[in-house]
Amino acid sequence: MAKTTISYWRIWSMAIGFLGIQVGFSLQTLNLSSMFRTLGFDVGAKPELWLAVPLTGLLVQPLVGYMSDKTGGRLGHRLPFLMFGALAAITALITIPNISTFWSMVALAWVLGASLNMMVAPYRALVIDVLPDRQHITGFAAQGFFIAAGGLLLSAQPLVFANWVYVANGVDASVIPRSYPFAFYIGAIILVVSILWTVFTTKEYARKTFNTVDQPTGNKTAHGRHMISSIGHKRIKPARRLRAGSLWVVIGVVLTGVIIQFALDKELFVLSGVVALIGAMKIIVEILTKWRIPQNAFSEIAVDLFLMPKTMKQLAVVKFFSWFAMFSLWIYATAAVTNFHFGVSDPTSEVFHEGVKWVGALFVGFNGFAMITVLAIPGLTAITSRKTVHMVSLSIGGIGLISFSLIRDPSMLILSMIGVGIAWASMLSVPYAILSRAIPSNKAGVYMGIFNIFIILPQLISATILGLLVGNLFDGQAIYALTLGGGSFLIAALVTLFVDDVSPQAAS
């Protein structure tokens, strides 16, 4: 039995839920820090609170993806996680603006982050479950369109509210402005409507129908799983796994010692901890295998992580460098533009605030360009190839970021943002389409969750390493962080050349 081609209207209906998810993420990113400061707490002085959100995604997405792979029933195996995740997220969005205590807001912020992450991996896997191979790129492009649309809505929020809601906020700095509840309530409405639209217009196939259909074909592994020839699973000798795991642990411990010895930023403990954790997981997986302990969620996810398909490993490198570039933009765009292009660093000056407003306008344009570009992605990949489109897009994004340091007129930075928007459009769609053919569809959820790790890692590294580079190597000049991000885009484009892509035509 083959999957039937579905209409574009149904594809877009299936993807619209990402609009609500992205609005939720953007509200969390843009507003929570300000709300914490209103309550008298500086999140910058407690970086572990800021890091809690990405670390939650690091754990939640692979686990929920794994669970959705195992779930079945009348409601489907992906859609229930969208419904339950949306319910928790909506509750958090409605409650957060009415909280007046710090730790209560921290708890709700964590609930919001966990519930939003809960929906991402099953949602990505839904495209693989429902659409035939030739429509995967269209499905992921539609998701990318709504992600960019959500970013555009929230990027425009300060510009809209500055002339509408903020003027009525009052002057009491200890009270959360009335604009914040307004924004969170609107976000909750967008989330519930978009997710429910997806749930009620999307029909999943029964699990037994496609239990073995659409699996990559080729040699079977020792566990009997069908794998495509490029998937690259290898039986690694136990002694080698133990040595590798031990080495990772030692490196993590040494890095921790270096951080303590030289009194480096404590955010770096996260990186050393991640390195040690990877080594510990390798050792634990080997012990579980040696003792023949029955499979469980931890062991299966860990094995899938360490034995990723070859194409997925290649895409992980591409994703790491491309997302590192994007985080350099998100973290340092305001500091770079206000200092380099507007020539001010005093946050109390009127010129500085003009620079901040212009950065907001640039991000509105950036997301708008991405929305337009992502509509052309399916057609461009049909004419050329997915690898070519992604490589060219990332190269254009790299040139766009580097051009920030070459352009002096702030108004001309819109050209730079066009380039970055093109790269962003490709990042939201093409890698997932390439990955969809390289993984077994009955494990799409867990692999989409694992793939998210390579968004979290560059986020953690950019938040730590970039700060050290800007402060020590670049003499506080944030513009060079964007140049470094542009170089990272170009590295990602180069690595794309070496990705093994199995096209839908070749696979059919």
Short overview:
Helix content is 71%, strand content 0%.
Structure characterization notes:
This protein is an all-alpha fold and 508 residues long. It folds into three domains: 1-214, Growth Hormone, Chain: A (Up-down Bundle), CATH 1.20.1250.20; 235-306, no CATH class; 309-508, MFS general substrate transporter like domains (Growth Hormone, Chain: A, Up-down Bundle). The chain is built from 19 helices and no strands. It is globular, with a radius of gyration of 23 Å. It starts with 7 loop residues before the first helix and ends with a helix. The relative contact order is 0.13. Residues 165-173 and 211-235 have low confidence and may be disordered.
List the defining traits of the structure above.
Growth Hormone, Chain: A; 71% helix; 508 residues; 3 domains; 0% strand; mainly alpha
CATH architecture of the largest domain: Up-down Bundle
* Number of spatially distinct domains: 3
Number of strands: 0
CATH topology of the largest domain: Growth Hormone, Chain: A
How would you state the average pLDDT, rounded?
83
Which class do the helix and strand fractions yield? mainly alpha
Strand content: under 5%
Set out the fold topology.
Blueprint: H1 8-15, H2 17-38, H3 47-70, H4 79-95, H5 102-130, H6 136-162, H7 179-201, H8 238-261, H9 268-290, H10 297-306, H11 310-341, H12 350-383, H13 386-402, H14 413-427, H15 430-436, H16 444-451, H17 453-473, H18 479-496, H19 504-507
